[in-house]
Design brief:
With 262 residues, the chain is α/β, with parallel strands linked by helices. The protein contains 10 helices and 9 strands. A 5-stranded parallel sheet has the order 2-1-6-5-7, with helices on both faces. A two-stranded antiparallel sheet has the order 3-4. It is elongated and about 85 Å long. The relative contact order is 0.11. The mean pLDDT is 95. Bound molecules: 4-amino-N-(piperidin-4-yl)-1,2,5-oxadiazole-3-carboxamide. 4-amino-N-(piperidin-4-yl)-1,2,5-oxadiazole-3-carboxamide binds next to strand 5.
Length: 262
């Protein structure tokens, strides 16, 4: 997959390309990574990329001509890539959108600065607008890195271990179970015994239940629109029975659950 980032701060990406999974994916030709300096397409001695907004008001707007020049240069390098603008007005990025985008040849990611870019660039050149969340950044660069990072790890071969992308949080709309490594006891807490048992079936069962519990406690919103396997449904029904038993035990003691008395 080909990533080309259009920015007035290409140096921000030097460190990003040079570490961890991203670096290895580039060296294995699983992805290609490039930046285009929008300023290189600006005119005049000062190569100005911003200007005051028509209609007045505070803040500056990115001029259309340098952006158009940079986008055309990117299109020549990667004619099949989709052109994406990072903006709070876009579709909110999530794991599902990450999967969808890995289906394409590549992305040209346009990073705005200041108040935003001239509307005619969005209209004439941009295929999709993406937001990384409901907050305002000083520039689209970090948003572009987040999108590239999340996509890269989904491309086959990018992670050493093919399984781990699938098992991660959100891939199946559940949060991941807890992880433990050595030592067996740390700050007085032990690793759950089942993980030391060597019984792989029991370990898988524990992990699934741990995922369901965490998702229920931390992110119930993820659980509503999800299909449950038979094993998952059985776990949820067992919770129901367990909770029912707790309620019945205390009502048979004749206590009022809302009174706060025992
Ligand atoms: C986002 C965001 C963003 C908006 C860029 C104001 C500078 C800034 N980009 N997801 N101009 N949220 N962009 O805040 O993608």
């Amino acid at each position: 997959m080909d990533f080309i980032v259009l920015t007035i701060f290409p140096e921000m990406f030097n460190q990003f390309w040079e570490h961890g999974i991203i670096r290895r994916a580039i060296s294995k030709n699983i992805i290609s990574a490039a930046t285009i300096d929008i300023r290189a397409f600006a005119q005049g001695k000062h190569r100005v990329t911003d200007d005051r907004p028509f209609g007045g008001g505070s803040g500056m707007v990115m001029k259309p001509e340098p952006l158009a020049g940079a986008i055309r240069a990117a299109e020549e390098q990667a004619p099949l890539s989709k052109k994406i603008l990072l903006t709070p007005q876009g579709r909110v990025f999530d794991q599902k959108l990450a999967y969808e985008l890995t289906g394409g040849e590549g992305l040209i990611l346009v990073c705005g600065r200041y108040e935003g870019i001239d509307e005619r660039i969005s209209y004439d050149y941009i295929d999709y607008e993406i937001s990384i969340g409901d907050y305002v950044l000083t520039g689209g660069e970090l948003a572009a890195m987040i999108v590239i990072d999340a996509l890269t790890r989904l491309i086959p071969g990018a992670l050493g271990n093919e399984e781990s992308a699938e098992k991660d949080s959100f891939s199946n709309n559940l949060l991941e179970h807890a992880h433990y490594t050595r030592p067996r006891t740390f700050n007085g807490s032990d690793v759950p015994g089942v993980l030391l048992s060597g019984n792989h079936k029991e370990i898988e069962k524990w992990r699934l239940e741990a995922s369901l519990i965490r998702t229920f406690l931390k992110r119930q919103d993820l659980m509503k629109n999800r299909a449950y396997s038979q094993q998952e449904t059985e776990i949820l029904k067992k919770w129901c029975r367990d909770i029912e038993k707790i309620i019945q035990a205390q009502s048979s003691c004749g206590t009022d659950p809302l009174s706060g008395n025992q």
